[in-house]
Amino acid sequence: MADDSVRSEASSQLDSENTENKTVSSNGEAAAENQTLSKRQRKKLLKQQKWEEERELRKHRRKEKKQQRRLERQNHHEEEGGGEAHSARKRLRREVTPSSLRLVVDCGFDDLMLVKDVCKLHKQIQRCYAENRRALHPVQFHLTSLGGQLKQSMDAKDKGWVNWKDITISTEHYSEVVAKEELVYLTSDSPNVLEELDPKKAYVIGGLVDHNHHKGITFDKAKELGIDHAQLPLSSFVKMNSRKVLAVNHVFEIILAYLEKGSWQEAFFTVLPQRKGAVAVSKDGTAAQEKDDEDSDSDSDPDTQDQTEKSA
Predict the structure, then answer these.
(1) What sign does the CA torsion over 265, 268, 273, 279 have?
(2) Per-residue pLDDT band at 166 (split at 50, 70, 90)
(3) pLDDT tens digits for 59-68?
(4) Which residues is 280 bridged to in the sheet?
(5) What are the tens digits of pLDDT across the range 106-139?
């Protein structure tokens, strides 16, 4: 029995010594590891450890800043009458009335465009979507024949497009999505001038950025398919320094503006960029600016007018 007690004590002592040896060994290994690290690596390691230790502190500070900004916004709204403005915005949102009018962007010209032009078309479609979402009378928006370079651009630069709302996106041709008798292709080459919008129709906009390299192609497509075609009444209300061909988003936004204002002229001047040099056309068919210039010229030289009267 005494021998057993001695053996037990010896075993405990041996275990204790082994534990101490392991501790010394691990500390030695850590020290050796620290010695093998360069000064820059040790500094980086300490910085990482400090960053981990202060994680909760940073989280707490962010939360405090967020609450402070929220309080500042609330105070600002109260000072500026924000409660009334918020109510007005809610009332305005309730007054939004969706239109039954359909606008179709024909994306079937992918093989006719360079990559940079496809990217421009992508941005124009994004603008159409955004403007329709905030419009007072949003239209039924369709994208047809989507594929090729355009889809690749959308997948690469705008992955959220698959979650777009209030839009119908199809790989099919527009004639397979909408009945032919309901289609009207909007093209500046058409001899037909659009006076009013028919809510029962679907108006097609050619999704093409070609810098006039394929002039008349949308008009030819419409004739080939045997569907109605028309151009916006641009010349009746506006004189421009540049060509009448408009970007996809400009045509889209003009129609949205017309649905809201009920006036083509207001719609054109609301949307058309200044670089187009748009000037209003008067009832006699002349540009209003030209008429003003003529009037100012006659008024600016009274002596000449007097001499003319005297010679008469």
Answers:
(1) negative
(2) very high
(3) 888 888 888 8
(4) 238
(5) 999 999 999 999 999 999 999 999 999 999 999 9
Model pTM score = 0.62
Catalytic residue among 210, 220, 284, 292: 210
pLDDT of res. 36: 79
Q: Can 3 be counted among the known catalytic residues?
A: no
The residue behind tokens 């209030």 is: 166
State both tokens at 295: 């009037």
